[in-house]
Amino acid sequence: MSARSPLRLAVxxxxxxxxxxxxxxxxxxRRIGAEVxxxxxxxxxxxxxxIAREWGLDARAIPWPGAARRAxxxxxxAAAMAAADTQLLVLAGFMRILSEPFVAAHAGAILNIxxxxxxxxxxxxTHRRVLAAREREHGATVHFVTGELDNGxxxxxxxxxxxxxxTEASLAARVLATEHVIYPRVIGWRAEGRLQxxxxxxxxxxxPLTEPVVERFDA
Length: 219
Ligand code: GRF
Prior knowledge:
By secondary structure, this protein is of the alpha/beta class.
């Protein structure tokens, strides 16, 4: 790892926080050159906030004021990010859609993880839909966030096989385990300066990523 100072992360969550925990471990164990400088939840009761507080992180609930007043949430979140001097916004199970002006103001500095092989299955209930369509493969995607839902430039995908007998729960658990590997990996690339955002595209190691990098987990 280089001698750069750690990349300061803001992590937005809405629920369980297992990706936040995976990221927190990767930072604490210095597997990646980043630190969680701020955690924001739109739900005060989110279990992920408890994890963040146990770890002594700057963790704030900014209750969702309703879609019509989204700007109030975004103003408060942006103020918290500025106060914490964060450099990258990591959406980790954050279940709200950020406005185009907010996303534009942080262009190239917001990542998301989505539990499907995007562009397949944007939106909710991905595991259920994958089983219903009898897909043979499934996985998760880390991508930059743009104004279009689940559709920004893709960086890294995990791939697993769908097994005969898989249920929504078994599939979700296997995909989630891969998320905990690939999200810290991408943030590590960003911290090392390997992953960049240029003119609306993701670049890795000096070349544009026309397709995401793929990591197989049960080849
Ligand atoms: C993950 O499956 C993530 O891909 C999706 O929401 C879920 C969040 O889980 N965006 P957790 O809160 O990180 O445990």
